[in-house]
Amino acid sequence: MSDSLLSSTQTPNNEASLTEWLDYMQQIHVSAIDMGLSRVLPVAEALGVVQSAKDDAYVFTVAGTNGKGSTTAVIAQMCQAAGYKTALYQSPHLSVFNERVRINGEMVSDQTLIEAFNKVEAARLQCDLTLSFFEMTTLAALLIFAEADCDVWVLEVGLGGRLDVVNIIDPDMAVITNIGIDHVDWLGDNVEAIGAEKAGILREGITLVYGSKDMPNSVLQAIDTHQATCYQVGQNFDYRDIDSQTWQYSNASVTMQLPRPALSLTNTANALSAVLASSLNVDMQAIEQALQTVKLAGRFDYREAKERHWLFDVAHNEQGVEFLLKQLLPFWQQHLVNQTRDSQAPATIKMLFSMLGDKDIDKVVQRLTEAGLPISEWFIAEIDYPRAASTEQLQGVLVSYIDETQIHEFERLANATQAVINASQPQDLIVVCGSFHTIGEALTALDI
User: Fold this and answer.
1) What pLDDT digit, counting tens, does each position of 313-349 carry?
2) What's the structural domain count of the chain?
3) Cα–Cα distance between 82 and 103 in angstroms, integer?
């Protein structure tokens, strides 16, 4: 190849483990993120995954700045409850890679992944191309779904939309959850540029569910260009809280009072709109069953462990923090009521926090510190990831908003996790946020 991308790294042998395969795929390409479809399309065509999706499956593709994981989880749960063999692809994972690839809610096995990686690698070498880790693993997921003959594919876009590997598959239904400023190095630094990238998942005559009341002109133009039908929240569908157990969804055709799910109502309403607008047969019983059972680790995820109260949320940009705070503020008030019954000492919030260095750490910290929450201490550490922010970088931002005495630095997140347990009381709430990797390392440290 002219750009000398091919690596001398040897393909894993037949006895290689999943970990060895994952390590290998992280080494064979020059960059972790390499936007574009020109390299991946020939390999996908050699594997037959593009034609399989077109001929045999109904495909939902979900893009957006925040809420993709919750939205795809709800869509998949509803389709599964309606009796469809449902494939779900999400990224990144929290604890184990297998979380990314599910069929009917179950993670696929290590062996299934390894067999798919072998086939993708053979096709890659046949095409004399290199692929990034994300491209390799996404192709493997698509191949697994094709070989399992799944009825419905629910695909979460990894980055942007237009040039993301997921976009090699033509969707039957497109969802854009929202558009905010994130991944500026790859997508642009304004909502018009980012909107154009995310609207790249549209196809001629497709239906789009748009989950925000603000729509950039670039998305409007894409809708017009593709002659797409658009259902937008606040225009064509809406939702409202009723109480802690129920909520109401409405569109031009129907009004439903439904059980409240464990996930964001905003994302749930977008998912329900996509399912209702699809050609699939998903009845009220399936919808209600799905809402009562759907869950997604790391999304406003409350747990009790080590005699402490924990709240895990993957919020890692300003918009994500807004989603978190919208749920956290009332949750905290209820937590105070519950803890006052059992303890005379006042409850506080301890923050276990780390982020990637290429995120807008300042905006995230500003929103968290100015939200009016009684955060008494911050426990920070560098996460084990190449793009991780250093503790010095995190500390440098935090001291602009809080007193230095409230900040505790640790070498590893596992150490910070143990420290926050030691420094907290049973009535306190420990909030863990900042990155998927932050949540994953904390869950591993807690062994939950």
Assistant:
1) 999 998 889 989 988 998 999 888 888 766 667 899 9
2) 2
3) 14
